[in-house]
Fold this sequence. Notes:
The structure is a homodimer.
Chain A: H1 13-37, E1 42-48, H2 54-64, E2 70-74, H3 80-83, H4 89-94, E3 101-105, H5 110-117, H6 123-142, E4 146-153, H7 156-168, H8 178-185, H9 187-201, E5 208-212, H10 216-236, H11 270-289, E6 297-304, H12 310-318, E7 326-330, H13 336-339, H14 345-348, E8 357-361, H15 370-373, H16 379-398, E9 401-409, H17 412-424, H18 426-429, H19 434-441, H20 443-457, E10 464-468, H21 472-490
Parallel strand pairs in A: 1-3, 1-4, 2-3, 4-5, 6-8, 6-9, 7-8, 9-10
Helix pairs in contact in A: 1-10, 5-6, 5-9, 11-21, 12-21
Amino acid sequence: MFESAELGHSISKAQYEKEVPILREELLEAQLDLRQCGKFQVIVLIGGVDGAGKSETVKILNEWMDPRYIETNAMSASSEEELAHPAMWRFWRALPPRGKIGIFFGSWYTEPIINRVNRRIKVPDFDQAMEQIIHFENMLCDEGALILKFWLHLSKEAQKNRLKTLEKDPDTRWRVTEAEWEHFKLYDKFRKVSSRALTLTSTAEAPWIIVEGTDPRFRYMTIGRNILSALKKRLEGGGHRPVSQAPPALPPIDNKFLLKSLDFSQSMSKKAYEKELDKYQRKLNLIVRNRKFKKLSVILVFEGFDAAGKGGAIRRIAGALDPRTYRIIPIAAPTEEEKAQPYLWRFWRHIPKKGDFTIFDRSWYGRVLVERVEGYCSEADWMRAYREINDFEEQLIRNGSALIKFWLSITKEEQLKRFKEREKTSFKHFKITEEDWRNRKNWDKYEIACGDMIDRTSMELSPWTIIEANDKYFARIKILKQVCSRIEEVF
Amino acid sequence: MFESAELGHSISKAQYEKEVPILREELLEAQLDLRQCGKFQVIVLIGGVDGAGKSETVKILNEWMDPRYIETNAMSASSEEELAHPAMWRFWRALPPRGKIGIFFGSWYTEPIINRVNRRIKVPDFDQAMEQIIHFENMLCDEGALILKFWLHLSKEAQKNRLKTLEKDPDTRWRVTEAEWEHFKLYDKFRKVSSRALTLTSTAEAPWIIVEGTDPRFRYMTIGRNILSALKKRLEGGGHRPVSQAPPALPPIDNKFLLKSLDFSQSMSKKAYEKELDKYQRKLNLIVRNRKFKKLSVILVFEGFDAAGKGGAIRRIAGALDPRTYRIIPIAAPTEEEKAQPYLWRFWRHIPKKGDFTIFDRSWYGRVLVERVEGYCSEADWMRAYREINDFEEQLIRNGSALIKFWLSITKEEQLKRFKEREKTSFKHFKITEEDWRNRKNWDKYEIACGDMIDRTSMELSPWTIIEANDKYFARIKILKQVCSRIEEVF
């Protein structure tokens, strides 16, 4: 969930000072258009970890726009009057009317998340609370509201540093109370619970936009630009409720993508590789022959750039297994029969029963990768797919599957090198097609799509493992190790 | 939920024999169009109580249409292979491709309902299972599928009679096993659980259509016509996924409406009335002064035809209470301020806190009554309102409200009499407006809308009470009694 928000995003002072005046002007203009249109209201939620700059952000938004048409609601603990009413009453009271922007600093998410972190409610009750929130937000969207949900994130280290900095400054010291340090102790729990909340409630109608909170300039500009872009898009359509719902979040304005920040220098010597390969293949073989394995199924998913070495990695895993015990499912374009069904149907066909070991060479993630990038499905279709995929994978996991997902990443230069090599080597020649060259042209789009995919579909029990695959030896061993350890965890 | 499906619906043999050939021909034609269009599949679920004719219905549908393009799936207990896969796997396998009709006799609802009836799962797990089903069905709809869900209902008496009749006939005896009689013993539980299932999963995308199962002719024709109408409507739009989703169910083909089958002869003498009025007003007064009442709030909702006596009944309740302890909220057209908000906002404003007693003279049900009938909102808007209202009322009840809902019904003749009387009596004159006469012209539409409303929003903890109000004395006492007994139940 938070992978892309721990990359150390930042904006230079120069860029900020150049771009903010333009952004402010455009925001003011859009706000005026919103008032004149009067067909919908904008509901902005600012949530996130303590110390990530929520209150400063609210303050900046009020400075940047016309505060007369913004209603800011700081929702802290409920008053006695509020407690005597149904829980949602105080939020209904605070809804902005059409034509206005309502900023909620603390929201309907706060209480369920805090209650779950403190173990005051159980997982099913928490999930139920999230479903109620989805109903509520869907209803608001159906009634025309534009909902923008921002989650300000800090890594554990960054949160600690920030709290300390705030404490040192006499002007801000008052803001760091014991409650903040208590929260900090619960960082890991809070991260886990809020990750689940965000995953469950990132609907096509109102997806979460996760913003790294470390650098104030980056934070303000990201939020400001996302508000502006969503508002303009809606106003362009005359303010009517769009069929395809919310627009996706803008790509990071500092151009720092998850896939760009990998350490591709990691490598392994041939000798070390051969030793490790032998070790982990043996290990995997033993695990699969364990009696416990009968009650389990393993599903491996391989995605990655063309020529990143998926095939080679898959062969090294297969090499550890009895050919009767595994199946490799290569996913290409759907057949006519498959096209006549909902897109997940062709994967359900191959879902293993208990005791099976299935390797998907490409997968259902095609929906949010190639289909998104090439425009084979509409924006609304791939936006809803994240949630459908999460639902799908939850069913697999609940049935006792170990689901292990790999993204094999290489650099653009490395890909070119491999393409050229393959063209030279005749027996690999068939592997380079027109399509590969076309995909390569869309490299940047794939980087964005892949970042969104990893952020939105890394659930606690089905996390993505990103493989730095410029060095094949390193990549294959990292994959084998991960397969072994994940299966052992599920046992 | 099942109010309208216990009226003894039936179709004469003559009408059936006249209309079925036409219906069959049209169904065949629509089926052919579906194949040629090939843009969507039709998924027909046939659920309901044992003995309501599910299997005969499936047989008839196969006779009426071209069975080569129908896939019938009888989903009984899972096979060993199915148990080794995730629960939904068997349904995915059975999905019809685009261009075809898939009939599911037993479906993804069967297991959660049976498990809940047998107490194998708890309420939160059951609710969660229903949410999962909603996700699944929404996904199918988003993928283009047309889902038609029919629930065949029998009253307890009718189910018993039918099981006995089947048992007597040697040709059908085999179908009544001990399992059926065991189920029958659980009738009340089954009714309660399935009522909750149907309420939770009647979404705007795939609402349930409840069909009384007693008369086979009525049952077949109702289902056949609903399939035909939904199919034709979708094909008219070129087969594309509609924005406003599923069409509402057709009104009962025998024209037997809930409100038409009330017993309006019930009455009460003035003397008896005065005695009872005194008795129940005293009782209500005592209840409200009880200390326990501090933790409770009471919400009364009055809906009904114009001149049905809502005002008079409300005054008799108010007469029992200390004026400082209650509020009457008359609901008229929304103000400008209210129009700028989601439609439920203006009711949330008046939601009482604990210890309050609030009487709504008309209510949020205007959305599915006047707004539906007059076309003030779109079909999609009032279709989704049932669920939104159920969500809303669940929040009130969870907060400790006793929610008591009355529909005051009079006959069309009685209304005319009262209108004319009011026009004569000068001090009541102001009460008859142009609007009243216009509403009267839409009488039949209100009857349909009201029947749908009662069927779809009578939850276990917020049932509707229908008041036969041709006799005012009888009506007022029935209301007072009900108010007292519901509050006592919630205590």
